[in-house]
């Protein structure tokens, strides 16, 4: 059954999350909340811990410490219930290469116990909007990354989940599809019950789409809030999110030095 | 110069192939937070699997001295001249080597292609010749241990069996040629895989074509299995051909590859020639040697061409029909696994081998007009081997999950439903095999007593199959939950396949062995079926609660 706003609590609550890969700590005591009607953007450099955070949220990784709850349910304690309430788009669209999008969506709809008519209608509408109909019966392994990402997005939206967890969801998409997904996400949370957690490198996406932004650096949350709140945090008015990001991660000086050194190569 | 660069590059690419074979990250597997990936571990585990394959090849070769020179020579084919018999044994060895290396190639090539190492290479400023050589060497590295084993062990055992260095040297061209043919067949069938199957989508025609190719892929494994199983009958048939003077059939057999090459040691000094003139045999051997030249030339560029092949994607027929069919959760898992397996040679082999085994043993035996007295023996052998094969390969069905595992784990897929889906696959294979044998039994001896008894025999074993599958999958689920998904492909975890399969084989085999043991002692035949069923049910009663308790509830 669709999980639309079916549980009590915030769509997502992360408390003091620690994720480790062997001796390496990828996420260090991260706490954040995605409230109802909110699109929360997680910004960070490569290796900052964004994807690890998202994987811990959807139950792919077991946190070393801390707690994650999706509408009050801990994916580590009741994975099935928590996962019923979320839709996930992974960073790299690696799927079942041997299946066609139709077969893949049938599998996802069956696992999510969606009525066939409802799944058909929703998938069909998305497929038409994102122009993937000609690819519907070709194996996923033969499709472009962009098309596979679109299929993943369709699968994520298929059951109208209360929480969408999107790892760089727009990175492989064409401008038309980017626009559609951005508008769709805004409309999706407009009912004030659902939430979205997305990670991105694109400052423009975070600036225009997200209601709140968290800046992650080496697994640590350096700053969090609306754009206005972040501007006041760095005590500089009317600066771009990019400048805020560099200031909070203390990378602005390093960036200037790198640009200077590259300039010498011209 | 070009070979030197190619050798250096192929070492790097091979490490990447091994890494992807073990961790499957490019197939969508999840990076484990507990066991960080290591190239050294990957290379070492792939090496272990290669050693296991090489051990099998050596084991087959070591049977040769036992078959030659001893009393077996006169038992297997009493009328056949000794020289001809010995040449047949060597030909059989070469055929088994060919089939085993070809089969290995079919299991390994999807991993090589899935690692997508060639696309990384193509962007480098290298000339086409170096690129061809790098791709060739990378491919050959996958076969290095089996190739070395065949090239060393074959002359060694022939030299020992014939007591002659010349005989040992004379088998070398044959050994080299079967290896060349085996690797070429792997590459050629690999191209079929990419061109005809990898890109084929849904629809009846595409599905039919896919299953046709699956049967084709299973042939080398099946030939290998069949040859080992039916070798006594092979020598008996050869004996009959000779005694009845069926010259055309005998000459055709002797001229077929690799027979003339297997006869070469017999013409070395001090050996008993196989009563066939040396000249035509040497001429045929020379012809085969010449035919290897274009094959070797083709091989130079074939691996790169294979890696660059583009799957012929299926087009959506007619207008876009968005209909999605609903499935129960267990059926959805089963269907996904069947679809994945039917498009992946390694898994297709696992599905089809027990079924083809039942067809072959059934046809072979029941077409020979069995009596009600021996039908049980034949049926038990067919069903028994299907049962053991189905449970032996169960870990590999679990490994299907590696495809897109990082995504699957985000789905609300209860562990018990996933387990039920996997077990349903094992049971489906067993029941399909048993039904085939049952059908053949009914056709050969259409009496209600025999058919009913045989059906009861297959059903009596069913709880043991269920118990074996439950035990094996529980071990694998536990491992997945603690240290990450175990990949149990041929070149990634052959050791794991054995470790998990042995307890399963014990459970599946116990009722069959007990039945055979009691039958021989008490001469009761079908009357022992309740005893067999009781043992199988007892196993299930012990294993099921323990397995389900260990498994626990939750998602994967």
What keywords describe this structure?
heterodimer; A: 266 residues; Rossmann fold; 9 strands; B: mainly alpha; 21 helices; 0% strand
Overall average residue pLDDT of chain B: 79
Oligomer classification: heterodimer
* Strand percent estimate of chain A: 15-25%
CATH topology of the domain at 12-85 and 161-263 in chain A: Rossmann fold
Q: How large is the count of helical segments of chain A?
A: 10
Helix/strand-derived category of chain A reads alpha/beta
Number of strands of chain A: 9
> Largest interface, by Cβ-Cβ below 8 angstroms: which chains and how many residues each?
A-B, 58 and 51 residues
What is the H/E string of chain B?
HHHHHHHHHHHHHHHHHHHHH
Largest sheet of chain B: none
CATH class of the domain at 12-85 and 161-263 in chain A: Alpha Beta
Q: How many angstroms separate the termini of chain B?
A: 51 Å
Report on the structure:
The complex is a heterodimer of chains A (266) and B (556). Chain A is α/β, with parallel strands linked by helices and 266 residues long. Chain A is 38% helix and 23% strand. Chain A has helices spanning 50-57, 79-84, 101-111, 116-129, 145-157, 175-188, 203-209, 227-233, 241-248, 252-263; strands spanning 12-21, 24-34, 39-44, 65-70, 86-89, 163-167, 195-200, 212-217, 220-225. In chain A, strand 1 and strand 2 form a beta hairpin. In chain A, helix 3 runs parallel beside helix 5 and helix 4 (116-129) packs antiparallel against helix 5 (145-157). Chain B has 556 residues and is mainly α. Chain B folds into 2 domains: 48-308, no CATH class; 328-556, no CATH class. In chain B, 78% of the residues lie in helices and 0% in strands. The longest helix of chain B has 40 residues, at 204-243. The interface between A and B is large, with 58 and 51 residues.
